[in-house]
C-alpha cells in the first residue's frame, strides 16, 4: 500500500538527514523547521563551539533554555535506561556523578567537578523533538531520520512508516512497519569510524517509544555480548541483533 | 440531605450508569474506564513493529 508522501534529504552533523511527510504541501515548511531546530540544537549542545550553551554551565544551579533542559532530561533518562553506559558527563569526580544532576523546569543543577557531554544522545533527542514539534505545528505525519536514528510523529500513513534495517551493503536486511510515535535506532560495531572486530554483535536495532530510548538501548546492547539478549528482553523492547557470522536474532515482537 | 439519603438517591443512578458501561468513567473522571480491562472499549495495545512492505521511507543503519 502506498500513500502520498514527500521527502527531502541533506547532510548535517556528519550524517544523512531525511525528512518524510504525509502532506506534500508541508514538506518545505517541515524542512525549514527542522533545519532551524538543528541549528539551534547545535548551538545548545555542541561542545566544539566556544559559544555553545553547554559550555556556559557552572557548578550549582544554572538557568538554561527549554531546549537544553529537554536535551539533558533525555540524556539522563538514557543514562538510567542503560545504567550509566551512556554517561552524559565529559568529566566527573565519580562514575555515578550523573545521578546527582537535576533538571527542574529550566533550572539545571550540576554537582562539583561535573562537565556535561550530550553527544551520545543529542542526535536521537533531536530526531524525537523535530518529529513531534513539526507534526504538531503542521498537522501531518512526519518521519525524521538522522543517520540511523529515526523518529516519527503525527498521522500514521496507511500501512505504517516503512523502515529498512541494514547496516552495511551485503549485511542481512529486513523491512519493518512502525506507527507514528514509534522510533528505530541501529548501533554498529563494523562501521569504519567505530570498528570493533571482537564484539559478538555487528549490529543491534531497537524499536521504542522514543528515538532516545531506541538509540540508547541499541548502543548499550551492541557492546554487551551475549548479555544483550536478556537485557533487551527485560526492557521489553523489540530488537534485532546480527552477529559477526551474520546470524539474526529477533526479540520482543520484532517480526522474524 | 443526610449522607445516607444522598447515597441511597445516587445508587439507582450508578446502577443505570453501570449498565451503560460508564460507571467507571463517572467515578474516576475517565481514568478508571481507560484502565479497566473489563471495559468494552479496552483494547490490546497495537504492536510497536510489524513486517514491512513496499518502498521504504527511510533506512536505519548503524553509525
Automatic annotation (TrEMBL), chain A:
This is FAD:protein FMN transferase. It comes from the Bacteria. Its cofactor is Mg(2+). It catalyses: L-threonyl-[protein] + FAD = FMN-L-threonyl-[protein] + AMP + H(+). The keyword DNA-binding does not apply. Its EC number is 2.7.1.180. One of its GO terms (molecular function) is transferase activity. InterPro entries: ApbE, ApbE-like_sf. Keywords: FAD, Flavoprotein, Magnesium, Metal-binding, Transferase.
From TrEMBL, chain B:
This is Uncharacterized protein.
